[in-house]
Design goal:
alpha+beta; RNA Cap, Translation Initiation Factor Eif4e; eight-stranded antiparallel beta sheet; 33% helix; 23% strand; globular
Length: 242
């Protein structure tokens, strides 16, 4: 138990140092209890696991297949694009995901021009990253009125699809997901690494559409980053649709 406690202490010290470095992103964090979600219970379980039970026994955390990083973007035209992108936190367990989710602002509460991005650790949420540049995205556009009725549910479902590896063997094709809060229309997109992998891309699109509970009458499109980069979003041609 002593070794376990020592390991926990080292981990906590490391986390504290990381939090100091990530101070620029602290503005998006909120006080605990902002969401009435399983996160409250899981946050408590995580604390119990760290502190040890009555007999000092560490409870088992539930590891995710991948380690994930949450990024926050706030548009400031006076700064370079990359300077507006901040790493908020990283996690690799179910409990840490819910602890994170219950501490940040809901997407619907962000101001226009802000983004959240959840990507596998090591992949930056930009087209230029070597693991993104050959890929593309499944794009879901929302009407203005959907921000307060649908956006948060759809974004949470997107996050759960990612961390739960919901796309079977094609989950390895997933790089991450982004939610854009914009005046005209909010958007959610799932990014994959290889636009030419038709079987994988289509499987991800079909499963994703089903998980979001979208009507069969709604069509969502997949755009290659290379096409989007050379044209405005409205003109980029869909490579695939489901």
């Amino acid at each position: 138990a002593g070794e376990a406690e020592g390991g926990t202490q080292n981990r906590e010290e490391k986390e504290e140092k990381e939090e100091e470095k990530e101070g620029a992103a602290a503005a998006v964090l909120m006080t605990k209890g902002a969401l009435n979600l399983p996160g409250d219970l899981l946050s408590q379980k995580r604390k119990e696991a760290q502190d040890g039970g009555p007999q000092g026994v560490r409870l088992e955390l539930h590891p995710l297949l991948n380690r994930w990083a949450l990024w926050f973007f706030k548009n400031d035209r006076s700064r370079a694009w990359q300077d507006n992108l901040h790493l908020v936190t990283k996690f690799d367990t179910v409990e840490d995901f819910w602890a994170m989710y219950s501490h940040i602002q809901l997407a619907s509460k962000l101001s226009s021009g802000c983004d959240y991005a959840l990507f596998k650790d090591g992949i930056e949420p930009m087209w230029e990253d070597s693991r993104n540049k050959r890929g593309g995205r499944w794009l879901v556009s929302l009407a203005k009125q959907q921000r307060h009725s649908e956006l948060d549910r759809l974004w949470l479902e997107t996050l759960l699809c990612l961390i739960g590896e919901s796309f079977d063997e094609h989950s390895r094709e997933v790089c991450g997901a982004v939610v854009n809060i914009r005046t005209k229309a909010d958007k959610i997109a799932v990014w994959t690494r290889e636009a030419e992998n038709q079987a994988g891309v289509l499987h991800i699109g079909r499963v994703y559409k089903e998980r979001l509970g979208l009507s069969t009458k709604i069509v969502i499109g997949y755009q290659a980053h290379a096409d989007t980069a050379t044209k405005s979003n409205s003109l980029a041609k869909n490579k695939f649709v489901v």
